[in-house]
Amino acid sequence: MPPHRVDVPQTAGGACVITDYFDAIAVGDEHVSMARTVTETDIVTFAMFTGDWHPAHTDVTYAESDPVFGGRVAHGALVLSVALGLVTFWPQAMKAFYGIDRLRFVTPTRIGDTIRVRTVVTDKTPRGDGTGVVTSDFTVLNQRDETVVAASLKTLVTERTGVRS
Questions:
Q1: Measured between alpha carbons, how far is 64 from 44 in angstroms, rounded to an integer?
Q2: Inside any domain, residue 5
């Protein structure tokens, strides 16, 4: 893990995923977020916000009788959103969330599960405009170290030479 930068803000998410300019980020850099427990309130609030009231998330009787899940599960998009909130970025260098590739919801997340995120930088691609795309393996793990979400996360990061005073 790269040394902690004094000027990188620390938030509830813990150490930043993008901790430096594009030039200083290395393939293999790894970061692990703090953890957060997914609650029933999270699920109900997410259903209200999105309008996704699928009974696998919101109806105890339906969910418990479903042979696939056997109980209520969090929305995949909720788990992804919470996970993205657990990782933080140094705003002076991170310009944009560039995208997600190969997104998979591997294991259901249930009420009471505690999740954390592990990222590993797998690629850097300069764009020639003072920025570059950093690609990271993005893995959401529960308290049993089971992968619940796996994806390839892309961020647009400023090169040190691209910084304008």
A1: 17
A2: no
Q: Counting every residue, how long is the chain?
A: 165
Sequence-distant (≥ 6) Cβ neighbours of residue 153 within 8 angstroms:
100, 119, 135, 136, 137, 138
* Number of domains forming the structure of the chain: 1
How far is residue 164's CA from residue 5's CA, in Å, rounded to a whole number?
A: 20
Say what percent of the chain tops pLDDT 70: 87
The stretch 74-103 carries a mean pLDDT of 92
Cα–Cα dist 149/46, whole Å: 18
CATH number, residue 32: 3.10.129.10
Q: What is the pTM of this model?
A: 0.86
* Residue range(s) defining the domain that contains residue 104: 16-162
| Residue 7: inside a domain | no
Q: Is 115 exposed, middle or buried (0-12, 13-18, 19+ CB in 10 A)?
A: buried
Long-range CB pairs of 121-126, under 8 A, 24+ apart, other chains included: 121/25, 121/26, 121/27, 121/28, 121/29, 121/30, 122/27, 122/152, 123/27, 124/22, 124/25, 124/27, 126/22, 126/159
